[in-house]
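SAMPLE LOG
Freezer: B-3
Tube label: C17
Construct: single chain, 103 aa
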Amino acid sequence: MNNLLLKTYPLWMTNSFPIIRIVLFCLVVASAVLLIVTVLFQNEDANDTDVITGSQESYYSQNKGGSKDAKLKLITIICSIVIAVCVVLYFVSFLILPVGAGA
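STRUCTURE (predicted):
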């Protein structure tokens, strides 16, 4: 006999967990699209040195926190964290309440 049939789950779990899974999936998709867009808009230069002289821009490097690239990098990090947390929560929800349980 299947162990899922022996265990009963509260009604709030059987009603809310499918909705929570859909919301988590939509968050992952939205964050992934935003992550792709922000990565495509980022500058390709990895270093802040001038190609011709080899010197660094001191004023720009001191005020880098307010630049467009710094904001895009922050959005990239936040989107990556949101994706990782949502994916973990999505699969943990299957450990707590399996798909066929409570139906």
